[in-house]
Amino acid sequence: MATAGKVIRCRAAVAWAPGKPLSVEEVEVAPPKAGEVRIKIVATGICHTDDHILKGSLPNVEFPVIPGHEGAGIVESIGQGVTSVKPGDKVIPLCLPQCGECSFCQNPESNCCQKSHFSEPQNLLPDKTSRFSCKGKQIHHFLWVSTFAEYTVVPEYAVAKIDAAAPLDKVCLFGCGFSTGYGAAINTAKVKPGSTCAVFGLGGVGLSVVMGCKAAGASRIIAVDINSDKFAKAKELGATDCVNPRDFKKPIQEVLTEMTRQGVDYSFEAIGHVDTMIAALASCNMNTGVCVMVGVLDSEISIDPVLLLTGRTWKGTMLGGWKTRECIPKLVSSYLERKFNSDLLITHTLPFAKVNEGFELLHAGKSIRTVLLF
Fold first, then answer.
1. 30: left (phi over 0), alpha (psi -120 to 50) or beta
2. Mean pLDDT computed over 315-328
3. What band does 1 get if pLDDT is binned at 50, 70 and 90?
4. Which DSSP category does 108 fall into?
5. Is 68 left (phi over 0), alpha (psi -120 to 50) or beta?
6. Nearest CA among 130, 60, 88, 125 for reference residue 3
7. What angle do CA 38, 43, 48 make, to 5 degrees?
8. How many helices and strands, by DSSP H and E, does the chain display?
9. How far apart are CA 295 and CA 205, in angstroms?
10. Using an 8 Å Cβ cutoff, are 7 and 28 in contact?
11. CA nearest 47: which of 125, 139, 120, 147?
12. For labeling, which of 77, 81, 247, 300 is most exposed (least CB within 10 Å)?
């Protein structure tokens, strides 16, 4: 390509400091070094985790930073030694890498690669330098992917090559939201046919959990949210019951236990609040119930140990338990085979310049997923 090996000037949304709106700037994106891939981002979704960055509530993020982690694009150029993708390939950058070499990657039951941000910050690429600069200043990466930029550079093991037929403005959701929720039900909870599930929070991730529970054959899926406007979409995607905690004077866990006589078989918390996390745990049956933590908590939590003493299982999930490089392409293929319709999660599509408007829709509870197009 004509741009290979050169610095590219393009648009990106930069968070200069916490608590301030994103600023669309012209940035310089350096070419990929050995083992790296430069991607032209075509579409990116807005996720609640990006909002946590802007509020300054996500630890280990350094400013100024280019957020975004739910994107899809086309390989523009590759660094020395890259063999799994080539210029022109459609790809999804992965906020959870799969190096294929660490003990976690080699364990068939694990998907949290030891090169993930839980092991060390991903504010700079593995060689501890940035590929982004703006107005003469170094700009940090976010989870290595920074999809709020027209071009981004990521390590090869954080890139998944997908089917050339995939519509990038739809499958960008597979970079985080859809994969996380759908996999939480299928992989992490391993929802059984005929079971009863409760899903707390009906954003893009929570509704993807609903879809996963339905695909797994759950007979009853109870959707829980304080925004009743989301109930129609939840039912469209497979929820059998919808409950607004504000309609009751008793704790929601008591309501769900009464509805099901003993508590649900599986509960999922897709919000990231302490009170709903405890309610989700208490709402699954005390003996064999499984509660999956999907939302990102921004504070510590304390619980009554008796909730676990009776046999409940409380577990977390990261990107739905998928081994990303090998599984995300398969999910995209399933989408193309119409095994599910994740398009229903996309409520708004905006030009990239309106990125802050997308966050306003999120704050107002008016959007499930907003997709930004470059």
1. beta
2. 97
3. low
4. T
5. left
6. 88
7. 105
8. 11, 17
9. 8
10. yes
11. 147
12. 300
Question: CB–CB of 145/39 below 8 Å?
Answer: no
Reference 139, options 56, 23, 246; nearest CA is: 23
Q: Which long-range contacts does 18-23 make (Cβ < 8 Å, 24+ apart)?
A: 18/53, 18/54, 18/55, 18/56, 18/63, 19/54, 19/55, 19/56, 20/54, 21/54, 21/356, 21/359, 22/54, 22/67, 22/148, 22/355, 22/356, 22/359
Maximum Cα interatomic distance, the chain, rounded to a whole number of Å = 65
| 145-149, 208-212, 298-302: least confident range | 298-302
Pair of tokens at residue 301: 């939590």
CA distances from 184 to 134, 176, 243, 294 (A): 38, 12, 21, 7
Count of positions (residues) in the chain: 374
Cα dist from 297 to 48, 162, 193, 269, whole Å? 12, 31, 30, 10
Q: How many CB atoms lie within 10 A of CB 89?
A: 17
Phi and psi for 368 in degrees, rounded to 5?
Answer: -90, -65
Alpha carbons 116 and 97: distance in angstroms, whole number: 6
